[in-house]
Amino acid sequence: MAERALVLGSGGHAGGAWQVGVLAGLAAAGVDLARADTVIGTSAGAVVGARLAAGEHPEELHRRQSEAEAAGPEARITPGAALGFLRAQLGRRTPEAVARRLGRMALGARTASGEGVLEAMAALLPVREWPEALRVTAVDAHTGALEAFHSGSGADLLRAVAASCAMPGLWPPVALRGRWWIDGGVRSTTNADLALGHRRVVVLAPLPRAFGPGPRAERLAARLRAEGAEVALLVPDAAARRAFGRNPLDASRRAACARAGRAQAAAHARAVAGVWHG
Fold it and tell me: Would you say residue 97 lies in a domain?
């Protein structure tokens, strides 16, 4: 059984900044989650995870949230996209069925150009070599199957992270290894079950509720515990939820969300240390 896994979930600009704040706050308290054997990133968590696994210190990540660093592809959830998400759930009982419906919606939607999204992602992700520990989730737009890309999967890192962030109806699917891929969060906002086989797991879940029939963060954490892992699951507290606002894709909220995450980390540092260090 492997030792430590860090799971970073989806949540847009707000959720990514909150995770950065939590990571920085925990590091300041002596809990260095960057020392994970495996880092599993979904959507915003894929961006944070790639930078963390590549060696960027949590404090540096936190500092950049308050600067005018490129924020990545800007988007807003339109009424049409929201309706498409609701329709995708009707009569579907599995995450894969919902993902296939969303994949069709994504492939037929008029969104920003794929190259434009890749250019914006390149500014947000100054990492090009795959960190050995990193796993990046995305969903096949045609089959609805989940994939966890890694250094040995023959996938370009930038495209893999862009695929993990490709929310249907907002950003275009990303071509990779001869397939089209969409946001890994349409299957699960954390995909924490990919950490099965690790003894110690910390899950940061900006959006703990699953989309449609997908498994919630709490359910996946319970499954990990049932398999013998020690698990710490952190979700935004009331102050962090206020910082998120109504649109987690609003990049202007990053600094406030990072501060809220850092403040929240202080209250959980001892419990997380107990899981991480034993």
Answer: no
